[in-house]
Write a structure and sequence with these properties.
The complex is a heterotrimer of chains A (357), B (292) and C (283). Chain A has 357 residues and is an all-alpha fold. Chain A is 76% helix and 0% strand.
């Protein structure tokens, strides 16, 4: 049933053409942003292959020295690719989290996955030294596997506590509770075996030093799945921006769509945390940065956030390896410092502009 | 020698044995993994200070090509390239050194990564005196040092040293109650830890019983109730200035019967390695000094 | 025989222990504009939500009864089909759409028509442009919602509801923050929708504007007190009664108005005399 125009004189034929041209500059900006980030990623990848404790020599000697080749190909490249992929996963999860919870301060760790991963890792490290049988089973699963199981287990626990995905507030609250409780459990584990304290600190600060090609493959697969799910379900996020009842009135099956988005978020976060530890702020800052450059609907927003997160973490990782070469900074420390400063600046700018954060 | 033929036979026998191909050694480490070494490794990277000291105690220091940043004994080791810490090693630096084997703690995550890169890894983590003896034997086997000259000899030296330290304690220091704090928390060394075992052999009584585990985190109240006569502090940062609330009432604190080990001595005391005899001597010296 | 757009039978809704609606039966005819009025807390918004199917059981409350849209039970309609047949505009929905441009916000109304993962089609763009022009929001369609005033924002949300181009349109307090010219525009738009064969149901607390509708439903205390034509004297009588006779319904230039009654009513008089320091009490 078409609407009659208020001024009957306005011709309807001009409407579609004008509207197509009205597809705002934002879409163009989004395209340029994507291209820019891809180019930046490629350049940073090259840089990442040249940065390390043995410096650029390894790249130059690659042709004749098998060790140099191994260093560049088996150590630096997978680390660099791993940083990019982990950032992509975190950026994606952050965009989904902010859309799902309709809160610009949401980050991928809201559903307790950070505490779950840390607990899983702590259990793995603690039992490693206790019994040889446990050690063999754990050797197969590894700290990485246990961290992933812990992260997904925590999200399932949150979902169970919130009795489903329908109530955003309940989900948030359950996530906070699960985070606190699992954090306490991890503290107990650390108390029982204090020799894992240093290792846990290294885990929580985040680092790409243990990422090999297998880890990259795992992260790439996880990214393909989560990005696909997020892309397909992005319109639920769009609908939710107008409120839950409005989204329901638009015919969106919110329950299954939310469940799918939570699953995508959990998979992405769990995989990233298991491989590279707890890296802060990438998931929080990437969507904000994208929004400040190009405002697009969620379908493109989640992918752009993923790309932005990947570039951010890659840059931070290279800085972490380069700043104090041959020593390394844990990349989580850098992202927290840089990300925190960015958020401070964002808050200051918003309060100056008079808007709400 | 009276008979030149005998000399010839003996020499040729010795030569023959010396040139026999070495038997491949199967080393089982703390993770339960067994690896085969056709010959003793020539290039070793060690990521655990106690293992570094063990290698050097077996006279194989020359095989080390890289150590972690905490390994600092003996002097020669300080000139070696440092490849990060035990928990956060620099994988690239390790690979660049082309090691035949990497020694590290069983709880380190680096073992998986290094093995994926094709580097042999032996994970050992001594926690008790028995562990130290076993690690000595394993390392001796790995480095191809016969037990008589290697592991057994070192252990005898350690044993004798601890014995001597025990005997050096005056009578009034016998059966004195001690409390050993490993780091602020307080994390104490219980009877079942290697530090506790040394203290037991020295003849003093540990206020932290074996039932609490090797390195329990205590309630400071426990120590007040236990009223140790001497407090030993092993942490490097010498923070004896600020005690826990309520400790002012302890006679050990009032009479300043506190042994705080400085950086050099603390390293010796908290490492379960070949310098345990010296650790015993250091502890005995202080206990003898501060005994009531 | 008039076609019934929405029919409700035995609607009861409660949140926690509080009963909001009790046993409501309602038949809203197609092709007519019905306004829903009543005092604060009467349950008008809840009734509209139930009719729209956005208030489901289990959200800390219970909903009973059945609602039929064009004869089909609401529960039996697939979500998208229902969304294409019936559009709903809520009141005070907490939105996080501050970053969204007006155009994109209006485009969200086309979701029921867009196939999965398809970009907006030419028809979608045309509908959005028409909706934005109708609510005078076309000129600043690229401004983000956070930079709009209350009235401008409301017009964008209206455009969103209009963009759905659904035969049935339910609106809860559509005139908040709108100044008189835009209120008049809204009246004009609704009339045009009805003329084109659509059905409009609006909850309004501006009684005068509600009286411009074809029919009126008076709700009080969770029940329907009256459902009749806006021109009927019976409707006026119920209207005045439900507001404690603090309004008078009068006609001026062929339009019905609700005028506030300024003289104090009986209860107010007693309260006023009690405030006097001296003087004989009594009525």
């Amino acid at each position: 049933m078409p609407l009659p125009a208020p001024d009957a004189a306005r011709p309807a034929a001009a409407a579609p053409a004008a509207a197509a041209a009205a597809a705002p500059a934002a879409t163009h900006r989004a395209g340029w942003l994507a291209v820019g980030l891809l180019v930046a990623s490629a350049l940073l990848m090259l840089l990442g292959a040249s940065v390390g404790s043995t410096g650029f020599d390894s790249v130059l000697r690659m042709a004749h020295d098998p060790v140099a080749l191994q260093i560049v190909w088996d150590i630096r490249l997978p680390r660099t690719a791993g940083a990019w992929l982990a950032g992509a996963l975190l950026g994606l999860a952050g965009a989904v989290a902010q859309g799902l919870f309709r809160n610009p301060l949401a980050d991928p760790y809201l559903l307790g996955s950070a505490s779950g991963a840390a607990l899983g890792g702590a259990l793995a490290m603690a039992f490693f030294g206790v019994s040889p049988t446990a050690a063999q089973w754990l050797a197969r699963v590894g700290v990485t596997g246990m961290a992933f199981l812990g992260a997904t287990g925590a999200v399932l626990l949150t979902l169970a506590l919130a009795r489903g995905v329908q109530h955003t507030l309940r989900l948030l609250l359950a996530g906070v509770i699960v985070g606190v409780v699992l954090g306490a459990a991890r503290d107990l584990v650390e108390l029982a075996s204090p020799d894992i304290l240093q290792a846990m600190q290294a885990f929580t600060l985040g680092s790409t030093s243990f990422v090999g090609w297998v880890a990259c493959a795992l992260m790439a697969a996880a990214w393909a799945l989560s990005a696909g799910a997020a892309w397909a379900l992005a319109r639920a996020l769009d609908g939710l921006t107008l409120g839950e009842a409005t989204a329901a009135s638009l015919g969106l099956p919110l329950g299954p769509m939310r469940a799918g988005l939570v699953a995508a978020m959990a998979l992405a976060t769990g995989t990233a945390v298991a491989q590279t530890g707890l890296i802060a702020f990438v998931g929080l800052a990437a969507p904000h940065l994208v929004r400040s450059i190009a405002r697009v609907t969620h379908q493109r927003h989640v992918l752009l956030s993923s790309l932005m997160g990947a570039t951010l973490l890659l840059a931070a990782d290279i800085l972490a390896r380069w700043a104090l070469a041959p020593q390394e900074l844990p990349v989580g420390v850098l992202t927290a410092a840089l990300g925190g400063s960015y958020l401070l600046w964002l808050m200051h700018r918003r309060s100056v502009q008079g808007g709400a954060l | 020698m009276p008979c030149p033929i005998l000399t010839l036979l003996t020499t040729s026998l010795v030569l023959a044995t010396a040139t026999l191909p070495a038997v491949a050694m199967d080393i089982t480490d703390a993770r339960g993994r067994t690896q085969s070494f056709p010959k003793p490794p020539d290039r070793i990277v060690s990521l655990l200070p106690s293992l570094t000291e063990t290698v050097c105690a077996l006279d194989q220091c020359h095989r080390l090509v890289g150590v972690d940043r905490y390994s600092n004994w003996p002097e020669a080791v300080q000139r070696l390239p440092q490849v990060g810490g035990g928990i956060d090693p620099n994988i690239e630096a390790i690979v660049a050194l082309k090691p035949d084997v990497v020694l590290l703690a069983a709880s380190s995550r680096a073992s998986d990564r290094l093995e994926a890169l094709g580097i042999k890894v032996v994970a050992l983590e001594p926690k008790t005196h028995a562990d130290v003896r076993r690690v000595l034997a394993t390392m001796g086997q790995l480095l191809g040092v016969p037990a008589a000259q290697g592991a057994d000899r070192v252990w005898r030296v350690i044993d004798a040293g601890v014995q001597a330290a025990t005997q050096s304690l005056p009578a009034r220091a016998q059966n004195v109650r001690v409390y050993f704090e490993v780091s602020r928390g307080p994390y104490a060394a219980g009877e079942s830890s290697f530090i506790g075992e040394t203290l037991t052999r020295l003849g003093v009584r540990n206020v932290v019983p074996a039932a609490l585990g090797p390195f329990p985190r205590l309630n400071p109240e426990f120590v007040v109730r236990a009223r140790p006569q001497i407090i030993l502090i092993g942490n490097r940062s010498m923070q004896q200035a600020v005690f826990y609330p309520g400790w002012d009432s302890l006679p050990a604190v009032r009479d300043n019967r506190i042994c705080a080990f400085g950086p050099g001595e603390a390293d010796v005391v908290v490492r379960p390695g070949p310098r345990m005899a010296e650790a015993a001597r250091i502890m005995a010296r202080c206990i003898a000094d501060k005994a009531p | 025989m008039k076609k019934i757009a929405i029919s409700a039978r035995g609607i009861s809704a409660s949140i926690g222990n509080a009963s909001i609606l009790q046993g409501i039966d309602l038949d809203l005819p197609a092709g007519r504009w019905t306004s829903v009025v009543g005092p604060n807390g009467a349950g008008k918004s809840t009734l509209l939500k139930v009719l729209a199917g956005v208030l489901r059981a289990g959200r800390a409350g219970r909903v009973e009864g059945e609602v039929r849209l064009n004869g089909t039970l609401l529960n039996h309609l697939p979500g998208r089909e229902r969304a294409r047949q019936m559009a709903w505009l809520g009141q005070n929905e907490e939105t996080s759409a501050d970053e969204l441009t007006a155009y994109d916000a209006a485009m969200l109304g086309r979701l029921p028509h867009q196939p999965w993962m398809a970009p907006p089609s030419a028809a979608d763009h045309a509908a959005v442009e028409q909706a934005l022009r109708t609510t005078q929001a076309w000129d600043w369609r690229h401004r983000p919602l956070s930079q709009l005033s209350g009235g401008e924002r409301q017009r964008v949300l209206l455009a969103r509801a209009l963009a759905v181009q659904a035969p049935v349109l339910l609106m809860d307090e559509p005139l908040v923050n709108l100044d008189p010219p835009h209120q008049a525009d809204w009246l004009h738009t609704v009339r045009a929708l009805i003329a084109a064969g659509g059905t409009v149901v609006s909850v309004l607390h501006e009684v005068t504007l509600a009286l411009q509708a074809d029919a009126m439903v008076v709700v009080a205390g969770g029940r329907v007190l009256h459902h009749g034509d806006c021109g009927d004297a019976a409707t006026h009588a119920v209207l005045e009664a439900v507001f404690d006779h603090r309004i008078r319904v009068r006609q001026l230039d062929g339009q019905w108005l609700a005028l506030p009654r300024i003289e104090a009513a009986a209860g107010a008089a007693a309260a006023a005399t009690a405030l006097r320091p001296t003087g004989p009490k009594g009525d």
